[in-house]
Amino acid sequence: MKKKILWNDIKGNRLLAVTTWLFMAVCAFMVALTCFLFGSLMASVDTLMEKAQTPDFLQMHAGELQEEELVRFAEENEQVRDYQTLNFLNLENSSIILDGHSLADSTQDNGVCVQSGSFDYLLDLENKIIKVSDGEIYVPVCYRQEYDLAVGETVQMGKNNFTIAGFLRDSQMNSMMASSKRFLVSPSDYKRLKVAGNEEYLIEFLLREGADINAFVTEYTDAGLPSNGPAITKPLIRMMNALSDGLMILIILLVSVGLLMISMLCIRFTLLTQLVADRKEIGMLKAIGISKGDIRQLYYIKFLALSGLGAAFGLLLAFLVKGRISTQIQELYGASDNGLPEIFMAFAGVALTEGILLLSVRRTLKRTEKLSAVEALTGQYGERKKKYLPSSQYLIVTLVITLGVFMMILPQNLLSTISSSRFVTYMGIGDGEIRLDIRQTEEIAGRTEQVEKLLAEDEQIARFVTLRTTSCRAVLPNGSHTSLQVEQGIHTTFPVTYAEGEAPKEKNEIALSYLCADELGLAVGDRMLLSSDEKTQEYTVCGIYSDITNGGKTAKAAYLHDDGPLMWSVFYVSLKDGAEKEQWLSEYTEILSDACISAKAVDIQKYVDNTYGQTIGEIRMAAQMAVLAAVLVIFVVVFLFTRLLVAKERYDISLRKAIGFTGKDVKRMYLLGYLPVMLVGILVGILSANLLGEKLAGLLLKTLGAAGFSFLIDYKIVCIGVPAVTAVTVCCAIFIGLLEIKNIRANECCMGKE
């Protein structure tokens, strides 16, 4: 009996049933897709890191190395499970040619290495440890798609040619956000190449289960061991691996939350509409003694069935789509060994989503308990609700348009921000046009002075600045020390983004990166101690800036009283108007090469494109998905509510036709009624996306070290593109929804409202 009533109800209200199912299915699809992608990403990253045996702590070091001190430290430290030192040979990018594609313009530090003997293995595309033969080379997998490479093609490194035997996954440097890339060659080939590059060391430690990584880093620093380079921990490596795809998944999640809120509003409204239409039937059921619970159950079973069908369809569709979207994840990290966690996560996410929707339905159905049999049979309840529904409908349409605009603008703002050259100021990089780096070379101080002299004599340069990075030891409140990379120079010429305070100008001022200030527990105005060669000097924290490079823990000072050995130097350059940037870079690369100066000169915009190209591409795809989802939802909601409005006001429309109004006149009245609704929705959506969306994005980037975040908005898209798309969608939905007006005859009003 209940099945028959349920089926008849669905057939009698096809539009409402299909709309309800559609919202439930779309919500299930988006949430399941988010869970599938997130589960796949984290499982793939963890599987890669587990098979590669990624070190818990890595210290890069350029310069002489006393192996005995490291061995003694590793043997005496109870937290150390294993230790090794790997060699990494940095090569000039211009000397590396991948099947005809030169890496001269690459912003990455490229070099070669041999396979590790203990841990930190380089893996092939099946996540197996690579064994390479003489004359062969394995290329980082990120270059395969970028340069369209294949096995058997040739790689030229200086005067040496190698055959590509395959592509490697590097658990440390897979992401383009890692500044270095390792090519794998045999030991004998490494020896042949050694004269063509500058060698540095990767000092790596595996720690025992439950070891405190931060405590170990402090012990390493206090021991005075080699630290002429960035130090990286395993959690940071995992974060860098997951970050690019993670941003795309975050956007899909935000879109899913928006769709869930829209679905709750729409399902609630359609249910209220049906309750008004069924008021007499409900009254009759109550009059013959059917209990409130049984009446509520009749409606609830229908929504339960629609929810089950929607969840099944959404899960199936997400499962079919996720393979296409997760291609990049599989390429970089491989497939996880066990797909059950992501399937379970998807089921749990869909169950939670459908549970929220059904809970909203249950709360709405309680309204039937307040309806007496007399009110329902006499129509008092229906008339009261009819007056309420139109205004409620316009409010819901406004909210849906607002959320839809929010869903479209937020990913676009994030995309335009990360694509902008100014985004580098959140990475700890100065706001210049060109950047030159001197690293991994002998006599860095002397080379720095040579480049500084060349830049000062160049008439095409409007301004430049030299920044020298040295390693100091910061004294913690408990008396222990931690290594701190301090960049010394004038920081006001090409400033980074400061979340608090300002750049250091005086001798005793220092600015800290957000993550560094957070770890040290310092704020603007606090004092800190830096020690070098048994001398300690006090500095005042003058600013806190964004930095997601070099582990995100750096500092800036105008002057150091007692600085240590120079680690690297950076030059920021701004050219005069009319100077050709590409030509200048080409000429300067030749000048530096002729002067035997190993320096890398890059266009900062290209640096952003190379570093965040993968991330930008995936955010662009997520932004397109968000636009499609928002347009679909806005269209369906406006169309549905227009049809419901026409159905409820059929008598009034007939009456207007009877007194002389044409169908076009009636349609114009409805269009004018929707106009303020659309304008308010678009305006509120734009404001909320730019203000609230900025805070949401800022919270994420703050965890990575980018504090003080603000959107770099593309106003053509935000103020013209999105409103135009929204307006066209709303108008199309209204026009189609109003087509029923032509079928309403003028004499219907003479037949009575019922």
Quick synopsis:
The chain is an alpha+beta fold. Helices cover 53% and strands 18% of the residues. The longest helix is centred in the last third of the chain and has 45 residues, at 604-648.
Report on the structure:
This protein is of the alpha+beta class and 754 residues long. Among the domains are: 180 residues, no CATH class; 165 residues, no CATH class; 157 residues, no CATH class. It contains 20 helices and 21 strands. It has a six-stranded mixed β-sheet with strand order 9-5-2-10-1-11. Strands 13-14-19-16-18-17 form a six-stranded mixed barrel. Strands 4-3-7-8-6 form a five-stranded mixed β-sheet. A hairpin with a 5-residue loop joins strand 13 and strand 14. Helix 1 packs across helix 9 and helix 17 runs parallel beside helix 20. About 2% of the residues have low confidence.
Strand arrangement within the widest β-sheet reads 9-5-2-10-1-11
Radius of gyration: 32 Å
| Beta-strand segment tally | 21
Mean pLDDT: 81
Measured as a percent range, the helix fraction is 40-55%
Structural class: alpha+beta
Strand proportion, as a percent range, falls in 15-25%
What is the distance, rounded to the nearest whole angstrom, between the alpha carbons of the first and last residues?
Answer: 28 Å
Number of helices: 20
> Rough shape?
elongated
Low-confidence runs of at least 5 consecutive residues:
373-377, 379-389
- For the report, how would you describe the main beta sheet? 6 strands, mixed
